[in-house]
Design brief:
With about 325 residues, the protein is an alpha/beta fold. It has 16 helices and nine strands. It is about 50% helix and about 15% strand. Strands 1-4-5-6-7-8-9 form a seven-stranded parallel sheet. A two-stranded antiparallel sheet has the order 2-3. The chain binds coproporphyrinogen III.
Amino acid sequence: NLNHIETDRFPVWLMRQAGRHLPEYLNLRSQTDSFLDFCYSPDMAVEATLQPVLRYGMDAAILFSDILVIPDALGQRVSFIPGHGPRLEPLDGRADINHLDPSNLHAHLAPVYAAIRRIRTRLPETTTLIGFAGAPWTVATYMIEGGGSRDCQKTRTYAYESKDDFQALIDLLVDTTSSYLIRQADEGAEVVQIFDSWAGALPPMQFDDWVIKPFQKIVAAVKTVHPNLPIIGFPKGAGLGYATFATQTGVDAVSLDSMVPLVWAAENVQPHTVIQGNLDNLVLRSGGQLLEAAVQEILNVFSAQPFIFNLGHGILPETPVSHVEQLLDILRRN
Ligand code: CP3
């Protein structure tokens, strides 16, 4: 698959497989108050990463961390409010951007690198370790909005009206993200995924500047050091932009959200790249006959070409463990 090796079955893992749908995660998480402290504790991060592999035998483990460790490492104040998600002290103009300081990046992220080294020693030989980072556009939206935002209006307006200043922020994120991913691979990550969760907020003229170009630069920088490291891109909500993304960024695989029509993707994306996806996370939450039918449909359309089974977005906390088991049973029958 990603390494162009023939396998008897396509691989499967689930975005957010480590996390709140797992009782063992909730138990581990209850031992630490702050989510960032949890992420920066190698003991906790290693255990959380291994949990879904031990329970389900997933083909890949994704490092337990968060995309917002980058703004945190650059000196922006980041916190996670239970029930509300992330809160950041929003950047307000060029002075705040100039204030961000990458000089402590690797020292700040040292616990993440320690976790990666330990995870690799504890994973089965055949389980792939996936490192990750947020894409510059998505991370920038959190930094400017101060949290999650559906339409990213403040960030999009800033990018239109102060394009040079916004470009400076994106350039800083391109550099720090490239260097972060390179270090993850140095320490034992065998694949990396770059999450652009808010790519769908951008119209075509901004999509090129803030999604395509930053991805091109990161992929080129990472491949200079690790030419054989497979890179998965996830431009969530890109719509027709998925075809451009697959042909222009240089990524090795593209993760599809659940809105992308299967046959369109098989014809316009899959010929150019490995695809990953794209079961609706609500279908997994509901389970039953619905899940059976939706999975069969995905397999019918995608399994003739290189393919990694996944969801279209992260697993929802309310998802019963038995539905994940049902999904894996269906896949292992095929
Ligand atoms: O299993 C895994 O996928 C690994 C861990 C992982 C987390 N966050 C842990 C987490 C990964 C890959 C992420 C990526 C991430 N973080 C993204 C990109 C993917 C996506 O979902 O679009 C984004 C946008 C974030 C930012 C973020 N972190 C948000 C919006 C939230 C709050 C929403 C939520 O799901 O709670 C977080 C917190 C977070 N990151 C949790 C987990 C397990 C929940 C916090 C907790 O357990 O207390």
